[in-house]
UniProtKB/TrEMBL annotation:
Signal peptide: 1-20
Keywords: Signal
Keyword Magnesium: no
Designated name of the protein: C2 domain-containing protein
One Pfam family here: C2
PANTHER family recorded: PERFORIN-1
Length: 128
């Protein structure tokens, strides 16, 4: 009689490292710090673990930008680190205004983080 133990073990191992879908959306910033060159031209770069999910469009000349882009990553795992970098687009070199990062959890979550150079970023993510 054949043993099903190896097959059962394989199925259980697969369940413990199951991948999920991450969706990052509803990003908006407020009170971004103006440099001596004027009002920021802000955009956000989105990462999950070592994967780059993309970046938003640049919102020109506003301290309170919002972005309607959604970012999806199908290989996300619970406790992966999601990182959002807020940049000010300039000619030659873009300034980093701040970084938001956290370990992701299942469900839908809204967060606001305070940026190193002033202002805050609000965003929502879902891990399903």
């Amino acid at each position: 009689m054949a043993s099903y133990s190896p097959l059962l073990l394989l199925v259980l191992c697969t369940l413990t490292v199951a991948e999920a879908q991450l969706k990052v959306f509803n990003m908006r910033a407020s009170k971004l710090d103006s440099s001596f060159l004027g009002t920021p031209d802000a955009y956000v770069k989105v990462f999950c673990g070592s994967a780059t999910l993309g970046e938003t469009s640049v919102r020109h000349n506003t301290e309170n930008p919002w972005w309607d882009e959604d970012f999806t990553y199908i290989n996300a795992r619970e406790n992966d680190v999601m990182r959002l970098e807020v940049h000010d687009h300039d000619f030659g070199f873009d300034d980093l205004l701040g970084v938001c990062q956290r370990k992701i959890k299942r469900g839908t979550h809204e967060h606001e983080c305070f940026l190193e150079e002033g202002g805050s970023l609000h965003y929502t993510y879902t891990l399903s």
